[in-house]
Amino acid sequence: MSLINTCNLGCVYCACGQDEMRESYILQGSQGLPAEKMLSIIGRLHRQLDLQTLRLTGGEPLLYRDLAMIINGALQIGIEDLALTTNGVLLEQQAETLQKAGLKSINVSLDAIDEETFFKISRRRGLNKILRGIDKALECGIEVKLNTVVMRGINAHQILPLLDYASGKKLKIRFLEVMAMGHLYENPGQYFFSQQEILSIIETRHSIAGLPRKIAATANYWQTAKGHIFGIIANETAPFCGDCNRLRLDSFGNIYGCLSSNTPIPIGEAAAGSAELTGKLEQAMSQKQVFKFTGSNLSMMHIGG
Hints:
The chain contains nine helices and eleven strands. The strands form two sheets. The protein has an eight-stranded mixed sheet, covered by helices on one side. A three-stranded antiparallel sheet has the order 9-10-11, with helices on one face. Helix 2 packs parallel to helix 3 and helix 3 (91-101) packs parallel to helix 5. By secondary structure, the protein is of the alpha/beta class.
């Protein structure tokens, strides 16, 4: 569920062409729907689908003003597995508030562990803010996982340093193949770095063994000889569309069955159990790809990533 379609970073795989975005936080963009309407949609979807997991995304969800209200409200609705994906820039200030609201798990997008590479990929300074935010979240008792989009020519040399960082913190890290989204829809290949290439780099230093894939999992996982677990989300070279069980909701209340779809399906005020909502959900399910992710010219900031 995307709460907001603005962000305080300008990562090249998501926000290309937005170099004019200033260094300060971008608060003037759309806040999406008010929390009350968001919670109404969550409630209706949960009553109909008995949702197992809700992941809050953006844009950057820590820019959403009523984030704690959304977290607490979703838990009261009855969704027990609640997680959040963030770039971590504001995490140090907000971790304690989020934990008190009931958040137990976050994924932090961390695409580099040195300042210059971080700037090259995010167009912003402030890596240390994110690292302090991770430490603060762990101090508050929030489970942390890391996500890294690997881009040829930009941050592939960060794979081993990031794996070392995650191992030192006892955190799981997942490396992602570049997705054909937004401005990369027509040409993702210029940055594409495959699962096998990622594994080849890791194997220069570690002995690894594959772990069984869970049903509907987006990531394949391996374990090093030292016991550290890492994953790779290989949407291109090891597609996982066949058993996908996810739906996406953007910050304006539109549902999608797949990132590859450009067609928003508005939930509106459709009641749980109604023919209207059932029809919209069936329409969303029909958007799912049979085998492989095909991409979309929608940016991840818009559809939620």
